[in-house]
């Protein structure tokens, strides 16, 4: 009996550091916007930005934290079935948090125009011209069925820029391997209050507020 009690105590002692790590895990937080809700008008209304950021993105963050807690509990119990069952929620809410965190920085009230330097040279090399990039990315984004995202990504293996579309909140890098540079959210909550069902008009307007400095920084980091 004493031997068994000693074994249990040793097991608890072994688990304590791991449980401590779980308990101290920092939760994800909703990032502040680098501009006011109305700063992107007239291209995106203040009402849309407030709802999109404070409600939709906040919901992804909250649900991601809840799902991660459940996952860690399943992990601690060795419950593989429970871990597998939570994968869809992790992908959806984790992707929603990743995608929106990129999206806010991809936009700026001082955006628009054309990229400069190495990014522009890469665009010309891989698409022929900046105008052709806009046309191809706009077409791919508008064509997303239901909800999803249009992306300009970097293929590190080949050293090339690529356009891709992801369904729902699937994160670009986690599902395609491409490093995200510029994303366009085409969930209806991103535009419907202002553009109704005319998605092409919303996508066209987005180009007026693209933060090319941010996209260029992402390209520089991805190219290393």
UniProtKB/TrEMBL annotation:
It comes from Electrophorus voltai. Homotetramer. GO terms for molecular function: manganese ion binding; superoxide dismutase activity. PROSITE patterns: SOD_MN. Belongs to the iron/manganese superoxide dismutase family. Keywords: Manganese, Metal-binding, Mitochondrion, Nitration, Oxidoreductase. Mn(2+) binds at residues 52, 100, 185, 189. Its main location: mitochondrion. Its cofactor is Mn(2+). Destroys radicals which are normally produced within the cells and which are toxic to biological systems. Destroys superoxide anion radicals which are normally produced within the cells and which are toxic to biological systems. Residues 27-108 form the Manganese/iron superoxide dismutase N-terminal domain. Gene3D superfamilies: Fe,Mn superoxide dismutase (SOD) domain (1.10.287.990), Iron/manganese superoxide dismutase, C-terminal domain (3.55.40.20). One of its GO terms (cellular component) is mitochondrial matrix. Residues 115-218 form the Manganese/iron superoxide dismutase C-terminal domain. Its EC number is 1.15.1.1. This is Superoxide dismutase. Signal peptide: none annotated.
């Amino acid at each position: 009996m004493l031997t068994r009690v000693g074994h249990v105590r040793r097991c608890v002692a072994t688990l304590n550091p791991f449980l401590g790590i779980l308990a101290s895990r920092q939760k994800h937080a909703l990032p502040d916007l680098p501009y006011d809700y109305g700063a992107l008008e007239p291209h995106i209304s203040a009402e849309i930005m407030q709802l999109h950021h404070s409600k939709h993105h906040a919901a992804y963050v909250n649900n991601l934290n809840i799902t991660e807690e459940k996952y860690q509990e399943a992990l601690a119990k060795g419950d593989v079935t429970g871990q597998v069952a939570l994968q869809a929620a992790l992908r959806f809410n984790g992707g929603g948090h990743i995608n929106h965190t990129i999206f806010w920085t991809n936009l700026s009230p001082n955006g628009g125009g054309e990229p400069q330097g190495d990014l522009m040279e890469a665009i010309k090399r891989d698409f022929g011209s900046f105008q052709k990039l806009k046309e191809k990315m706009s077409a791919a984004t508008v064509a997303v069925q239901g909800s999803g995202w249009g992306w300009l990504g970097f293929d590190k293996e080949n050293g090339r820029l690529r356009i891709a579309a992801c369904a729902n909140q699937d994160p670009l890098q986690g599902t395609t391997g491409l490093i995200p540079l510029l994303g366009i959210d085409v969930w209806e909550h991103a535009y419907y209050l202002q553009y109704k069902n005319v998605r092409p008009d919303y996508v066209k307007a987005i180009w007026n507020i693209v933060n090319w400095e941010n996209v260029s920084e992402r390209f520089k980091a991805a190219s290393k």
